[in-house]
Amino acid sequence: MPVIAVIPARYDSSRLPGKALAEIGGVPMIVRVWRQTRRARSLARVIVATDDERIAHAVRAAGGEAEMTASTHQSGTDRIAEVAARINAEIYLNVQGDQPFIAPEDLDALVAPMQAEPALAMATLATPITDREEWYNPNKVKVVCDGRGDAIYFSRSPIPFARDGGVPAVARRHIGVYGYRRDFLLRFAALEPGVLEQIEKLEQLRALERGYRIRVVASVAPSMEVDTPDDLMRANQAAAVNK
What we know:
Elements: E1 3-9, E2 23-24, E3 27-28, H1 29-37, E4 45-50, H2 53-61, E5 65-68, H3 76-86, E6 91-94, H4 104-116, E7 122-128, H5 132-136, E8 142-145, E9 151-155, E10 172-181, H6 182-190, H7 195-200, H8 205-209, E11 215-218, H9 229-241
Parallel strand pairs: 1-4, 1-6, 4-5, 7-11
Antiparallel strand pairs: 2-3, 6-10, 7-10, 8-9
Helix pairs in contact: 3-6
């Protein structure tokens, strides 16, 4: 069965309203994400899942595939689960719609361990943190792992905290791209949010609280996430440089 990437996209965003359609170098952000994602060699199909006709129209006008989904979903994972319920695949990638420069190599790297280990139900990406400002930024999620490379915990706080100061060598920033097996995805989306998830506002903690493993894969080429107007300005500057 194939590997499918699903890009959940909604119009509303508290920090950057309408960001899915915000233009970067004259191209809607969601279209840039779709174009980058479809370059991954391991993917058979790339689908944008949205509840907004404007987003669907922009994707289709660029030659992409869009699926309309319910407007009641609380998270991107819920939106992907709706697509998975009607479109069959072995593995689904959750590619965030605010990563206009996502590297296809990262998506292939994420798929690799899931194809190699049939028992692995979920995986995600991370990259080293060396910048002190990023280390203390609550919008940058941190992750610590065990010796196998599976996540122990995700937090908005600096973890592991370095008692002697500075950014520890093992500091890693979580990149919000996930891989799921179909049966796990449908089961996960049906679970009630966990206590830690509600405190940190991080849905991946729902899996850890229930005892599921999450493999953390090293990012090959970490890319920029666009969450704020300042991020959008930097994205446009990057697009201008890389024309």
